[in-house]
Amino acid sequence: MGDQTKSGIRYHIAFVILAFFFVGTVVPIILYQQEWYKDWLRGLPFDVRILVHPAMRMVFAFVGWLVVCRMVQDRERIRMGLLMPPMQAIKAFALGFACSLAMFAFGVFAEPNEIHYTLVYSSLLPGVTEEIFYRAFAFGLLIQAARMNLWAAAFTTAIVFGLAHLVRSDVRAMPIGEMIGWLAMLSAGGLFFAWIYARAPWNLWVVIALHAGMNLWWDIFFSHDTPPFNGLVTTIARIIPVGIAVYLVVFRGVLRESSATTIKA
């Protein structure tokens, strides 16, 4: 199947990206419903068990990336945004984390949870692996390689991003109305993260830092409450950091010029 017109969608490439994306999302969810799989996970040390699902998605992301790069002639223009020049990566990471501090400002008025090394897994690990899989691989490739419309790619990946959290037992245990609201908020976050990433442009470190920072403050200050609509304050605390990042990156373009020389990986 050949390419479409130069400005049109490359449907065959979009199909390959979405196939890797959906399989990489669904396989961990299906496996987690199997008793033999859960028994196997319980037998692993915690520090290994927590890495299994993120590692699965990284395999799908990087194998899919290699497959797609072999399908396109202009692969040198495809950017994941991880291997940035050091100062560009540092600037983007600092900006993303600084935006997350708005959530910290709300949290200082709450009683913090116990600080434990597992916060590294609950904040940094999703911040890195989910942004690679959902934003850099799925969203980024749908635009850069498959030439899909930005908002079509953003909505597609954001909805799947929200639904993927059904693997969490605390989400599945919610009343249906609360669950829908929680998943909608996660999907909205994925949508705005994609917008920020595209306008960085393609500098993944800004959304990694924003995501990891927000997860960190949530786990320290907010996770003892039932998310997300038990109080207006907790909802606002999640919205403001993303809003600040959108304003600075999308509307003010603070990373646009510095990322112009992004290298392809």
Topology:
Blueprint: H1 11-32, H2 35-42, H3 46-49, H4 52-71, H5 86-107, H6 119-144, H7 150-163, H8 169-172, H9 176-199, H10 204-222, H11 232-251
Helix pairs in contact: 1-4, 1-6, 4-6, 5-10, 5-11, 6-7, 6-9, 6-10, 7-9, 9-10, 9-11
Q: Mind explaining what this structure looks like?
A:
The structure is a single chain. The chain has 265 residues and is mainly alpha-helical. It has one domain (11-251). Helix content is 69%, strand content 0%. It is built from 11 helices and no strands. The longest helix is centred in the middle third of the chain and has 26 residues, at 119-144. It is globular. The model is unreliable at 1-5 and 260-265 (pLDDT under 50).
SSE string? HHHHHHHHHHH
Mean of residue pLDDT values: 85
Please indicate the count of domains.
Answer: 1
Unreliable runs: 1-5, 260-265
Highlighted features:
disordered C terminus, 265 residues, disordered N terminus, globular, mainly alpha, single chain
